[in-house]
Amino acid sequence: MTTTKKKVLSDIEIAQQSTLMPILDIAEKIGLTEDDIELYGKYKGKISFEAIHKLKDHSHGKLILVTSINPTPAGEGKSTVTVGLGDALNQLNRNTIIAMREPSLGPTMGVKGGAAGGGYSQVLPMEDINLHFTGDIHAISTANNALAALVDNHIHQGNELNIDQRRVVWKRSIDMNDRALRQIIVGLGGPIQGVPREDGFDISVASEIMAVLCLSQSIGELRKRLGQMVVAYNDSKQPVTVENMGIEGALTLLLKDALKPNLVQTIEHSPALIHGGPFANIAHGCNSIMATKTALKLADYVVTESGFGADLGAEKFLNIKSRAAGISPDAVVLVATIRALKMHGGQSKGDLQTEDLQSLQNGLSNLKKHMETLEQFNVPFVIAVNRFVTDSDGEINTLIKWCENQGVKVSLTDVWAKGGKGGVDLAEKVLQEIEGKQREFTPLYELSDPIQTKIEAIAKKVYGASGVDYTVKARKQLEEYEAHGWGLLPICMAKTQYSLSDDPAKLGRPENFTITIRELKPKIGAGFIVALTGEVMTMPGLPKKPAALGMNVDDKGRAIGLF
Question: pTM score, two decimals?
């Protein structure tokens, strides 16, 4: 007798077969009324400022942060685990809300995919979230480019602030990977077309405005942070800000609706706030404070994530977002996959579906370093082994036994295939950590430390570097930034996500390496200094065969090939 092999549905097929509840019903589950929600169709809504204000005296729930080891190019399912854990906690009758980032169209059309989870642990409506959603990123792009236009117009119309056109640091933006726009020249065509100068584009999620939106907790704070953004330097090499130009009000106007958190749901109808999406390898990699703190007011437990590995997203969550928001996680989930560990252990990327116990053993050093990093922050954590269908029993047993021998809680998690049910064991172990002995969260550095000391603390304590090298340009900037009074800000490291080092080819746990700081960028509105390392770029490029090549739409308007 022959058996028919069951087809494995794609993420988009699973999403399209799911039944959504009206978003007002989801709002009611978390204590919000129809008047608290601004509808964007039947299944999406924004929480109003009035509703958020009413919650100001509510106590906070418990916060769970999900991070991971250094990923493969396809990602390790960190967002999927975030969604599955939230669903699992709700299955255990724990009032839980998920708080995640919005996907960018760049990786959606490129190679990595979106950030809405996968399989049976997704947030819905998946098509909307991974495309235009409620227009937040478009609003950020518009505000970013309005500022760029106003800077060029100011120079063209007489340049009252004496902006040095060679020292305009504000770039234009587009929410797409487009290497051709990294360096451009604007203002060509004669006197009436403007003043010629070099310019460039960042991807929208790398714009400082995205970081400002995600770190602001009110319209007033948003306006203030926008005003503090540095756009250029004048002829005396002094910074020129948005406030100097008098346009912070106009930018705030363009962003007023984008500041409101977006409410959606998972396949299992758990409430989810999807809001903000700065990249973690070139920005701070966390969803908005507005969304996280609103969720904490509405729920007993909040599951949130940070981008890429613990060397990037978690480090920035703990050193930047936690400080700005006045919060810290009650527990951390460290996602590991067998395929990523084998890659770090030397197995070629094309063979990761093949059993290789030796490569797995070799790659455990990467997981061990991320565990040590979390221990330095003094936060309790659980390891989630995100299961893939290609994982062998031998590989799974090897990894689980190793974790147990390290004395840490570990859970084999199968939320892609089973939804919340596949994350119940993880949820129970996370609850045990939260309800166990409380630890005193400790940032890695003091804000009063010099910029150079803070950079070196991250490089040595988180990456495992032996030291830090600075280009001549970076050393000069260190002196200038301290002189401008920016020395008390935290550091946002821009680094490859694929390695603990600044070289994506150095996998596993590299040793005896130095981090090279090639340039610093002041993000004074966001409230941090960006340190660019290695060859990391703020405008990614598309791969040889972008995911966009497989995308389409059917005659009923439904997406095809969207993961």
Answer: 0.95
